[in-house]
Specification:
With 173 residues, this protein is mostly helical. The protein has seven helices and no strands. Helix 1 crosses helix 2 (38-48) and helix 4 (78-96) runs parallel beside helix 7 (142-172).
């Protein structure tokens, strides 16, 4: 096997593992699978964490994780998939940040790792063993990369700013 094939095989393994974990987390939020709270439970949790409105926040987080994860597994629209998952993980990092870095103490280590991994896959591309490759990279163009990551960063910044403002207002009451 040549180095190029090994690299493509490694990208497939990384996409499949990361995407599957993200899909599992997203389906917990959306459907209550794997012991998750489903949309109602996640919406209540989102409200409690300062993401308002809770239902829309739960849907966005669930779709970012499950949808981004599914696209990563398939290697389809990889820049958008990586950006969506990374944006969803930015919200999770913000929630866990007060507890410090390490997951053992409730910190942001795990969502940060998932977010950086998804972003790296989105930046690197899906590799040869992907739908992106099979379609001639129809949804994996330089402009889609720039648009996806810019859009995700702006959306995450807006959501986190809104959450901070809501928490600030709650603290003053």
């Amino acid at each position: 096997m040549t180095c190029i094939n090994r690299r493509d095989l490694a990208l497939l393994a990384l996409r499949a593992g990361t995407g599957a974990v993200l899909m599992a987390h997203g389906t917990q939020k959306l459907f209550g699978w794997f012991g998750g709270g489903g949309l109602a439970g996640t919406a209540a949790g989102m409200e409690h964490m300062g993401f308002r409105p809770g239902k829309q926040s739960a849907i966005a987080a669930g779709l970012g994780e499950a949808g981004g994860g599914a696209l990563l597994v398939l290697g389809l629209a990889t820049p958008a998939a990586g950006a969506a998952a990374a944006g969803a993980m930015a919200g999770a990092v913000a929630v866990h940040a007060p507890a410090g870095f390490f997951a053992q103490g409730g910190g942001y280590e795990y969502p940060a790792f998932l977010g950086f991994t998804a972003a790296a896959i989105g930046l690197a591309g899906a590799g040869r063993y992907s739908i992106d490759h099979a379609t001639g990279h129809l949804f994996d163009q330089p402009w889609t990369l720039m648009l996806a990551f810019t859009g995700s960063a702006l959306a995450a910044a807006a959501v986190l700013a809104k959450r901070a403002a809501a928490q600030s207002g709650d603290a003053q009451e």
